[in-house]
Amino acid sequence: MSISTNIEIENKLEELLKVARFTQEFSVTNNLSIDCLSALNLSLEECLTNTMKYGYSDSSLHKINVELWIDKYSVRVRITDDGLMFNPFISHVPKLDVGINEQNIGGLGVHLVKNIMDSYQYFRIENKNIILLTKHQTKNWSDNDS
Fold first, then answer.
1. Which strand ranges, in their side-by-side order, compose the sheet holding 2-10?
2. Greatest mean pLDDT among 14-28, 83-97, 98-112
3. For residue range 63-80, what is the model confidence (pLDDT) as tens digits?
4. Where do the domains of the chain lie, and which CATH numbers do they carry?
5. What angle (nearest 5°) sits at the alpha carbon of residue 40, between those of residues 37 and 42?
6. Quick one: pLDDT at residue 137?
7. What is the pLDDT of residues 95-117, one digit of tens each?
8. In sequence order, which residues have a C-beta less than 8 Å from that of residue 42 and are 6 or more positions away?
């Protein structure tokens, strides 16, 4: 059993509200745990914000597709955009043992994504960035009788 849905947004920060509502509806419909919803929300906001702020060399509107689906024990996310090639998961590891004023700018949000999601991958296919994220749940959706 696989449950899938997607939303297409533009590369504008105000579109993050649409994604939050979309993720909330998906979570309620599929009975996701609050921990899973929180991980999805934080990860999506971080990845999408980075794409919107730094992923384009022009000021044109671009489409970004967000797909959520469930398979067996996992919730999966696919973010696809036509921005500049950039693998966020090879960025530097932030220094967590220094004060805020000594911290380098950037990297902390991606660090959080890497630590709250169970897996993360980046691909560049046909001039598109594709980020895949996975969050495991203890529930088997194929046993869902509601």
1. 2-10, 63-71, 74-81, 128-136, 119-125
2. 14-28
3. 999 999 998 889 999 999
4. 2-143 (3.30.565.10)
5. 105
6. 82
7. 555 565 665 555 567 888 999 99
8. 112, 113, 116
